[in-house]
Specification:
The protein is built from seven helices and no strands. By secondary structure, it is mainly α. The chain has a single domain, classed as Cytochrome Bc1 Complex, Chain D, domain 2. The N and C termini lie far apart (about 95 Å).
């Protein structure tokens, strides 16, 4: 029986019949496109993370790392209350210009090591606008109801 099967296979091969499985034709592969964030606040949160604001101001914007001898209680200040101290235009300017110097808590002590860099020429206008909206959104809702 195996001899018959062998001879049949040999005869088919000799006749030039080829049995093979062919794969489907290649299909175009498109990289998935990430849809843009739906709101300025969501895009601003992405900007906050992308440019490293989170490293100093914290993931939730409530302040972060130590900044020895800084007038802001020796820490990098939070950004949750920026809506209280700045207009949107002023905040935009602060983001672009940064803070070249940080005040000292002890005038005779060392200069605080951290300051906020200016982002002019690095962030696009749209990124700055979205970041402002994100920072504005951090203002506590209970406080917003008091003032607005």
């Amino acid at each position: 029986m195996s001899r018959v099967l062998f001879l049949a296979t040999l005869a088919i091969a000799a006749a030039g019949v080829r049995w093979e499985i062919t794969p489907p034709p290649p299909a175009a592969i498109r990289a998935p496109r990430n849809p843009p964030a739906a709101t300025a606040i969501e895009r601003g949160h992405q900007v906050y993370r992308r440019y490293g604001c989170v490293m100093c101001h914290g993931a939730d914007g409530k302040g972060g790392i130590a900044n020895p001898n800084a007038e802001t209680d020796g820490r990098v200040p939070g950004v949750t209350f920026v809506a209280e101290g700045y207009t949107r235009g002023e905040l935009r300017r602060k983001i672009l210009d940064g803070y070249p110097t940080v005040g000292k808590k002890d005038p005779n002590g060392p200069r605080p090591p951290f300051r906020m860099p200016g982002w002019a020429g690095q962030m696009t206008d749209a990124e700055v606008a979205d970041l402002v909206e994100y920072l504005w959104s951090l203002y506590p809702k209970s406080e917003t109801q008091k003032w607005r």
